[in-house]
Every structure is written in C-alpha cells, then in structure tokens.
Design goal:
The protein has a single domain, classed as Rossmann fold (3-Layer(aba) Sandwich), CATH 3.40.50.300. The protein has 11 helices and 6 strands. Belongs to the sulfotransferase 1 family.
C-alpha cells in the first residue's frame, strides 16, 4: 500500500514563500545584467559616433553636405587638406550612381577679353568639369544684389544651374566665370567669407599685354553694332575665315587716356589679388596658357581632377602684329614709349 505523505499547510506556504524569493532574486539579477549590457552597448555606440564625427570634422566634411555619409564608403579617403569636397543633392534631378562622387567648387575671376571664354571651353572639354560661364551680367540691378548673388552661386554649386556646360556624367568640379566688375569686388567681404566657408577655389585668369586686350575690347564692341558675320554678333569664332573677317576691323585708340586706362586695369587686378589672397587660389596668365600647354595640367591638378588632354574649337581672332591691327599705331607707339607699359609694344609672339 502506497503511503501518501501530506505536507502541512504551513510548510507548503513556507516553501512557496522561499521559491518566490528565489525567483525574485533571479529576476533582479537578470534585470541588472541586462541593464549593464544595454548601458555598455549604448556607451560603445556613443563613442563610435563621437569618434566618427571627429574624423569627419578633421576631414572638413561634417555638417557640410546633405548626403548620408554612411552611403559613401570612401568619403574620408577622398578628403584632402587643400581641397574641400562636397556631395550636393540637386533639387532638379537625382545624381543616381554619382551621388558619392565628390565635387570641388571653383570660380574663375577675370576681366573681359582676357581669354576666359576660350579657357572655359578647354575646361569643359574635361568629362568631369562643368564651368557655366558668366552667371552675372553687368548693369542688372537684380544681379548686383548680394542675396541674389549668393542664391545664384548656390544653384551652381548644388548642380541645379542649367547651361550647356552641365554634364551627363559624374561632375567632380563645378564652377563659373565672374568678371571683376560684376559684383565680386563690390561685396568682397561677404563673397570671400562665403568662398572660405564653402571651400571655393579661385582661378585668377589675367592677361599681361593690356594693349592686345584693348584691341580685342574695341573690336568686339564694334562688331556688337556692325554684326560683320552674316548679320550676327560673335564674340568668339570657330573658323579662320570668320576670324579674318572680324580682324579686318582696325580700331583707333585714344592715346590721351591710354596710360591711365592701363593703370586702372592693373590696379583692379592687383586689388583683387590682394583681397582674395586668403582664399585657395591660383594665378594663370592667358599668354602662358597659349605658349605652354602644361599649364592646363597645372589647372587640372589644382581642381583635383584627373589630368587629360584638353582642346578647344575656338579660333583666335587677332593674330597679326599690333602695328597691323591699330589704325593710329604711330601715335600709340609714341604714347607708350618711356612708360611702364612700353613692353606691350614689343608684341612678343605667343600665337
């Protein structure tokens, strides 16, 4: 016969009480362990984020671009101490596979008829460079407004500015051309601050022989009214025949104001170089570009793009000696003799 031992009611309650305390002890232990684990993981993530933020700040990339850096694995490797990179997200289209292609911002500061149009055609021959020409024009009151200027520049650097220079492939350097008399110096403090903040590199394109530049200015002004080629004004041409037609005009130069106008032009360029000295910049002379094609390699290196051969379809208009291009050459020659601009008369060959 099986004997069933009945546990007293008091013993059952006591055992239940002990089991409950043991269960509570185990529960508290597990909870404490989970709190420790979660806290450790949280601190680890915090250190990772802080460390990553520090790296991005050191690379000059933190907080500067809207693109998610987690989607661009080589973002830190693309950074440079001298070139500030950006990852713009245009409003007008999606960059697609180019979203992680870093973009370098630049601007060409120059003066009219200094070869900037020809220079831009060379830059735009590069598959990864977009230079959008003059985005401001002298005389427009709206375009002399600082807010408008910043907004227009922002469109260019955000890859939203539409021009023939826009690339269908991945752009890695984008910029525009800005004449010194189109507001760049008028708001120089604000513009320089903007350039420094956004890491804009400045290319100064100047011309040494101001007499040749003056011939080009006067001839271009004449053709704007005369429209010598099929009733159409052309600032630049793409055939030798058209170049010869435009070069047939010989301007008469006012010798009484000639020296003073040259001094003002020199002062303007020197003042610009002084004001923008604190920016990342390079100074290129038109004559050097014509004589030495390696100068284009230097420009490409400055822009941080791969170096490739660049070509332009533009044809130079004024290739004759200055004595054959100025109607009152004898008077001009006499006026410049003995001045700091006498070297312009030597007309060194650089074609």
């Amino acid at each position: 016969m099986t004997v069933v031992q009945v546990q007293p009611k008091e013993d059952i309650l006591f055992q239940y009480f002990l089991d409950g305390k043991t269960h509570k002890k185990k529960s508290v232990s597990w909870r404490l362990l989970m709190v420790i684990i979660v806290g450790f993981c949280g601190l680890s993530l915090c250190f990772v984020r802080v460390g990553r933020r520090t790296l991005l700040k050191e690379a000059g990339l933190y907080g500067k671009d809207p693109v998610s850096h987690f989607h661009c694995p080589n973002i830190l490797n693309n950074a440079s101490n001298s070139i500030q990179l950006h990852y713009p997200r245009p409003k007008s289209y999606q960059r697609g596979e180019c979203i992680c292609t870093p973009v370098h911002f630049f601007v060409i500061l120059s003066m009219q008829r200094s070869g900037s149009g020809w220079f831009e055609t060379l830059l735009n021959d590069h598959p990864n460079i977009s230079s959008h020409g003059e985005i401001f024009h002298r005389g427009s009151m709206q375009e002399r407004n600082l807010n408008f200027i910043k907004r227009r520049i922002g469109e260019v650097y955000n890859l939203d500015y539409n021009s023939s220079a826009a690339k269908n492939v991945c752009t890695s350097a984008v910029g525009f051309k800005w004449m010194l008399n189109q507001g760049a110096l008028e708001y120089h403090k604000e513009i320089i601050s903007y350039f420094r903040k956004r890491g804009v590199s400045v290319i100064f394109l100047l011309r040494r022989n101001l007499l040749r530049r003056l011939v080009s200015i006067l001839a271009n002004a004449y053709d704007r009214e005369a429209k010598l080629i099929n009733g159409t004004h052309k600032s630049h041409v793409h055939s030798k025949q058209e170049a010869a037609e435009l070069a047939a005009f010989k301007p008469t130069i006012k010798e009484d104001t000639l020296v003073d106008s040259f001094r003002k032009a020199v002062e303007l360029s020197q003042n610009a170089l002084k004001l923008f000295h604190g920016t990342r910049h390079i100074v290129i002379y038109y004559e050097d570009l014509v004589k030495n094609k390696k100068k284009l390699d230097q420009v490409q290196e400055f822009l941080g793009v791969r170096i490739v051969p660049l070509k332009s379809n533009q044809v130079k208009i004024h290739i004759q000696p200055l004595s054959d291009q100025i109607r009152n050459w004898d008077s001009v020659n006499k006026t410049l003799r003995g001045t700091e601009f006498e070297d312009f008369l030597a007309d060194a060959e650089y074609i």
